[in-house]
Amino acid sequence: MKQMNLFKNKKVYLSLFVSLSLMIGESVQARTYKLVTSTSEIEARANYLFVADYNGAYYAIGTQAASNRTGVAVQVLDNAFIATAVGEVGKPYEIEITGSADNWVFKDVANNTYLKPRANATNGSGQNGLQGGNSQETDWSLSMASDGRCTITANNTAFANRHLYYNNNTGNIPLFACYSSAQTASNYKLIYLYKEVLSGNPLVIEADKEVTLSQTDYDNRGYTDIIFKSNNVSTGQLKIIGESLTVNNGTVKLEKTITKHGAGAGNYEGKRKWYAIGFPFDIAFIRCSLEGAEGVNLDAGDDFWLSAIKSDGKFEAIVDEIYSGTTLSANQGYAMQFPDVLENEVVTFTSVAGVTLSNVTDIIIPVTDEYKMIVNPSVTKIDLSCLVEKQHLYVFDGYVSFLHDHGKVKTLKPFESLVVYEENIKTPKKSIVNIEGGATGLTGVDVNNDDVDDVRYYNLQGIEISKPTAAGIYIVKTIYKSNKVETTKQFF
Question: 361: Cβ–Cβ under 8 A, 6 or more apart, which residues?
Fold first, then answer.
């Protein structure tokens, strides 16, 4: 079991670690939270659990009900720590706190909604409740006792004097709600804040989420890797505060779930999908969730293709077998297809270390009379409404072709690419740019007349070496002047 570093430059008592380890088990989703005992410890854009102590039993804010939030039982260790999975039924929900003193904003991380007192409540018990809104409708004042108990009150005049409490709700489901007056009965309890301990943890951005982060946030929270999740519909996005963000302590990863064409896809139904991908940084290696103990290759033979476009608009396969040592160049668009065995599995693209990310607000379309693939240079969706009169975009249709789509498509998702072309007399404009149909054959380059530009060697773990020094099997990547790449296993 991997031990968790709970503190940065602080001693962790063995008994506490053992207790947390037993509680967490092998769950990769478990996170650790520490009790906040001073308002000076509240950090904007950090994530918290809102917790109440009811006679020695602890409850955290859970799922959203019609007019309140459920209370979910949690275990507090050493009077200061909670280790739990979050963001699902039966588990606590994280609340991101932004703003500043006396004007805090509470946001449900999983649901992307803002906490507010019950809407349209004007009198009596109808004023009691806690809901989520798609936009911020109130901020909150917060005072804290020396033991960490918080008095939390809504500031908006529409919700004047609404106080947040845990209500044990005897005989019913425990809940969190706002009340129009201070509650003194024994079943009402004030709130404690538990802040997520992030030292040494990656930042994981789910496929349907957008996360806001600055360089200071990344450094102060001790993040390592930044991991973007991606599926057939969407890709996680990172909105960077400031000009850029350097991943000093790790790498950037894209974890992409591979799918086939679903029902209604006509001739493509059930067949493998192509992906139009590209990265604003170099990819050091590619792995998949089905790799064996050696972690060497995704698949061999023509079930796998990595193709690039030529100046005439035809695609040419540059790799037909991929290993952990396979690299991808920054700002180079590719068409990729994966074998059937990877359906519903995850392929992970890992960057070189220490890359710098940025949010480019606009994409530069090169003026060219050749067909080129361009890559989203950002880690968030980017605007494409920047074409001049004779520039043409070809947007991937999700099947085997890039379709001419002048001015219709407005955005390009992170880690995706498209084809661009500047109309001219020499090279006529195509209506469709096909990946398949002869252009993907490996016979497009005569290797016998194609000079070798570079040869690289890798061991069976995908680690590059200068050259084989001991007898055994090695991965050899031969790079030709034409940019064709040939990858083989050879015995030395």
Answer: 382, 383
